[in-house]
Amino acid sequence: MLGLSMAGLAGLGAHADERAPTEEDYFAQLPVVLTASRLDQPLNEAPGAMTVIDRDTIRQSGARTVAELLRLVPGYVLGGWNGANPLASYHVALDDYGGRNLVLIDGRSVYASSYLGDTHRGMMDVLLPDIERIEVLRGANSAAYGANAMFGVVNIITRHSVDTVGGAVALSVGDNGIRDTYARLGVGTGGNNVRLSVGEQRDRGYLNAFDDKRLGQVHLRADFQPTLADEVMVALAASELLAGQGYGPTDPSSPYHQLRSRTTHGQFEWRRQLDERNELQVSLSYMEDRQREPMSVQVHVSPFPPISLDVDYGTWGQRHNVEVQQRTVWSPTWRTLVGVGYKDERALSDTMYYGQGWVSMGETRLFGTAEWRVDPAWLLNAGLFMGDHTLAGTYTAPRLMVNWLATPHQTWRLGVTESIRAPSLSEYKSDVRVNLPGTPYFSRAYAASGAVQPETLLSQEIGYLGRWPEAQVTLDARLYRERMRDVVVDDNGDGTAPLPYQLGKTRDFVNRLALTLVGLEYQLRWKATPRTELWLNQNFSRLKWDAPDYEAKEERRPPRHATTVALFQQLPDNWQISLLHERVGSMTLRAKSSWMATTHRTDLRLGRTFRWGGYKAEAAFTVQSVEGDQLFFDPQRNYRRGRQGFLTLQLEM
């Protein structure tokens, strides 16, 4: 049903032809996961720490975005420069766009090429009721996915269309302008099924910010099984975001204005079981993002008086990707995955890439994973990714992880991984110009020299996964040290010779910083009774910048401690209550001037399932931030995350 190789569980000590993974495998207490190495593995054999959030947890959490769901993953911190741009970062938010955090939807990267290589808007391009589960690898993983899989990998896996035959509708209304709608229709029989989903999400964002949001989406997924050996998946989608942006009169360079962002994508995936030991997978995807951001800015460049200019920072980006990989089971103790791929990214913007037309970069890649069961207690996982990037050059990203299965329920992990982030098109080729009308003069905010080099991250970790089946307790802990070099920052560019008629300074992107992050994180899950489940996540970390001046400014300082507690309780008569409490230590997502004190957030959801006219229905009431309004992200501007309640009614046919 989920399109996995029948050979996928051979690493468990079974032969390839015994059985394929079932839904029960994925949602057992020790689930099978796909994201760590591209091989399907039980959680205790994955080469890294992972968190799995299943469909029931997504529904019971009361979350409205994927970013909010990631609060259930230790080490992730929720942010966003306004309420229309939610962002969740793993460990440290080095940018406002999530460019160092790989986000996949059904294995397709949502990395946008048009602007600064962001993933946060792509992470919004999925409807939560369509998600089957979210797998999060907590740590670097360029060995499996290449550049940009640096701080965490989020793989959003949508429901197979065979599981959504029929219809469903949902409506949420509440405070702060919340109005969310969803509708789904699924048709088909046997191995051929199609699902069409549409939805819209509206709210008014943060208090005291100009960030009203309206996000509309339409998704089509079709799954076919033309033969017993073949499975085909086709996905098409389009979304449009209308959002308020800017800081208003306090910042003439960023007045209040409207952003319109449109994203479309297509995806094709074909799997063929070549024989009992080999599976071939071919994937093709295309993504296009167009953004219009017109505004009237005030520019004051000596010796000219202040002048109002109409500027559009709109961009048009395209991304093509093709990939072929083969899984092979050589024996009950040895299996491999090898693959090749190519991607092309390009962007067009008169303002961002002045006079250059389409700018582009491409990458050819070769990757592989080998899993060797040395003996029943020792499992070795080695991965290597080699990329040939037209701008970043040639690079390699290796990983070596050893899993010691000390007992059937106790596993220790020890490993080292090296990852990279290739700079974005903007960091390589941006030339941001604004012409002063009626004169030959212009301002040039950014002029990338193209000399920037990839960032590198060396991650070392010791992990532990313990299960106590009698007590229904699972503990997953990760002790890590992450050393990042060649961190890219924008520089004043004093050494850049100004062009004729250029006014003011320009900025370039350079490799200037390094940091070290050490910490301990863990997740504890306890199924206290068949009707009660408790989650406890904690992360303790310490960040050290190498540059004393940057350190003194407290730039990009993550919290030293963060705790999330979640309770999911089934009550009599089909009632259910969920309680999520989050405590995040003091931190800054930008600079010392935007320092946030320790924050608390409690979300409460009360729901009941029932039958209505022969259909399955659920009504739920959710209150987010029960404590009330709190300063968030940018205290200087008095941005606040407000208390909001909303009622949800869902009907499934």
Describe this entry's structure for a reader.
- With 653 residues, this protein is mainly beta.
- The chain has one domain (10-652): Beta Barrel (Maltoporin, Chain A), CATH 2.40.170.
- The protein has 6 helices and 38 strands.
- The strands form 7 sheets. The chain has a 22-stranded antiparallel β-barrel. It has a 5-stranded mixed β-sheet with strand order 3-8-9-6-7.
- Mean pLDDT is 89; it is low at 1-28.
CATH architecture assignment name: Beta Barrel
Q: Which stretches are low in confidence, meaning pLDDT under 50 for 5 or more residues running? A: 1-28
CATH superfamily, please? Answer: TonB-dependent receptor, beta-barrel domain
Q: Using the alpha-carbon principal axes, give the shape.
A: globular
